Amino acid sequence: MALHTHIEAHRAPQPSGVEILDLRHFNSQHLRPLLEHETRMWQQLMTWDYRSSADMILRYIDSKILPGYAAVENGRVGGYAFFVYEGSKGVVGDLYADDSIHLPEGEGTVEHLLAIHVIETLQQSPGIHRIEAQLLPHESGSLSATFVREGFRQFPRLFMSLPLKGSQAMQVFPAPQIEFRRWSEPDFQPAAGVITAAYRGHIDSEINDQYRGLTGSLRFLNNIVRFPGCGVFDPNASFVAVNKLTRSIVGVLLCSRVKEDVGHVTQVCVLPEQRGKRIGESLIALCTQELMAHNFSALSLTVTEANTRAVGLYLRLGFDVKRRFDAFVWEG
């Protein structure tokens, strides 16, 4: 993770009494109440247990290696945002504020101020040519004016959920020359190849450029499987579709536990030449069957709203739209 010095924002005068300060001036004791508030919000809005992610963020804050900003009023931190550098790309990791700081009318919100500081810092950082942000806790449109004004493209996305308790088990559809099995560690490299091929020319590769090459797909898989940023990876509820003749993987579904009894599909994709055989639907069915066998109450996923084919499938399978949020991309 590259470290860059603090850059003052010039286009966003700070309201009287509110300071936007370098996050590395603070420690976990200052941020813990805010992260506890955010954890309750994730539970309420998305039925996610955010505690492991919050603990990881607090450890990074204590190590003084997490670049970002804190919104402070009367010595209390009421909002924060952080970002990371990945080569020539900056990624906004989180942006959150509680309701403790009330700005004067016409001066926007704390999230607005934090967003401007993060955007300006990343856009002015040497060597940064791309910025990505996915702001799941924020309703679509709530921060779009700030990002779009700074040259970002906006991609509305959907958070969808499927109730499992009391639901009827989904059907697995036999496909010619295709068999299904659980995920195993040797699937790592071939699964990255499937992801790269599946998202070539796809709108999601505009949102996440890791999908555009094998190295990026491997990095994406590593983040999903080995880090708790999107729940705890569950290999028993993750499946692959395999061509019986070539023994090659043609489809992948990865699932994580985001709460003790809630699963989340972090990735599902099928090779373009294998689509139309209900392989993706069967992978989802296998995942739900596994979760239901262990008394899970729900399964969630996110999907880009413009991916109408996938949205239609999830609606047909019984998923409901719970939230609409935005992904933003800037390319300098």
Task: Please give the structural blueprint.
Blueprint: E1 18-22, H1 28-46, H2 51-63, E2 68-73, E3 76-86, E4 89-97, H3 110-124, E5 130-135, H4 144-149, E6 153-163, E7 178-182, H5 188-198, H6 204-207, H7 214-226, E8 232-233, E9 239-243, E10 249-259, E11 262-270, H8 279-293, E12 298-304, H9 308-316, E13 320-331
Parallel strand pairs: 4-5, 11-12
Antiparallel strand pairs: 1-2, 2-3, 3-4, 5-13, 6-12, 6-13, 7-9, 8-10, 9-10, 10-11
Q: How does this model look, in words?
A:
Helix 1 (28-46) packs antiparallel against helix 2 and helix 5 packs across helix 7 (214-226). It is built from nine helices and 13 strands. Strands 1, 2, 3, 4, 5, 6, 7, 8, 9, 10, 11, 12 and 13 form a 13-stranded mixed sheet that branches. The protein has two domains: 18-128, Aminopeptidase; 161-324, Gcn5-related N-acetyltransferase (GNAT) (Aminopeptidase, 3-Layer(aba) Sandwich). By secondary structure, it is of the alpha+beta class. The model is unreliable at 1-13 (pLDDT under 50).
